[in-house]
Amino acid sequence: MNFAEVAGRIDGNVLGRLMYGQRELFHSNLLAWFFDALPDSADEVFRPFSAAGVGSARSAERERQNMDLVLRWPDRAPLVIENKVFSLPDLAQLDEYARLAGSWRGSPPAFCLLAMSAPDLRVAEDGTEATENGWRYLGYAELARRIEKALPADQSYEVETMRRYAALVEDLQHLVSSTDVVSEQERVWLSDAELSAVSSSQTRAALQKARAQRIARLISREVPGRHRDVEHGMTRSVALVSCFEHIRIRGVDAWAGWQLQGAQFRRAVIFDDPAVRGRGAAFSERRAALARSLPELFVMPTVLELERAGRNEFNHYAPDFVYQYGRVPSLSVRRLLDAAAEIHADLARFESVDDGDLVGRHSSSARED
Fold this sequence. Notes:
- Helix content is 37%, strand content 24%.
- The chain has helices at residues 3-12, 14-19, 24-37, 39-46, 91-101, 140-150, 157-177, 192-196, 201-222, 281-292, 333-347; strands at 59-64, 67-73, 76-84, 110-115, 121-123, 129-131, 136-139, 228-235, 238-249, 252-261, 264-271, 308-309, 315-317, 321-327.
- Strand 9 and strand 10 form a beta hairpin.
- Helix 3 (24-37) packs across helix 4 and helix 6 (140-150) runs antiparallel to helix 7.
- The radius of gyration is 24 Å and the shape is elongated.
- It starts with a helix and ends in a 22-residue tail after the last helix.
């Protein structure tokens, strides 16, 4: 895939410009319009995912109980569609939507997950794919193929709009696929050259967040943990991924671990002690004094072979986050997994508590002092 070429095609597609900054909202709205404007073509695309039952008047319903799209036919049960473009599907969210839709009057609805990236899927005897909790899976690339096949051979406004949409979806699938982890030898983050080919700042940010989410998922799967939070996100337009485990050391309760943001690798601790939680210089100094007494929590993993950077002994994110860092400009996925495993093995020697005894979970995206 030529990343710049695909990004250029998206930028040149008028629907691509309309999509910028909207993402799931744009796709759900356009598919609802497709259902109304080209009913025969839309039925060819979506009816195979519906179920037999007694329905109601034909309609495309948006955001009912926060569900992206609900399609209705007089002679079929409703079809609930959850739409994920850059983010990964959340099975707990799908379970909640299924619970809510299960209380609707009439025939039980069918459920379809429309997503760029598939979760773990089960394949039925008829070849259909579904999530572990029973949502039929429809990938965006397959959606584009179904739309192209279903459109009539004319050049009406409605048909041309959906042809352009199918082309956009195919290109977007290529772009989002670049955030998937294919090899552990890849660099953790997308390169500046790749990101600079995307003209939309919102889309660049979405791609970086998507990559961080996929790295976090890989860490959750591949690296053991104890009372652990693996997080991902962006602060100050730079993607990050972090992993913290609850420990109790010399009478101190804390979340200890690491954070990678851009080229900065941080050993960090989030303190639960109310005496050091707060904003301003006085609280920063109290946190630094406590951190200074716990040097074993700031040891850098040997596999990274980095030196500490920064002018200060400790850096802070108020109200409770203390860290030291070094620079790793070209970190591979494999090295990050090894570093995470090394830190977990080191933290495992400290006492922890049962899940039920944990007080509030930490947040690692607070403001800097």
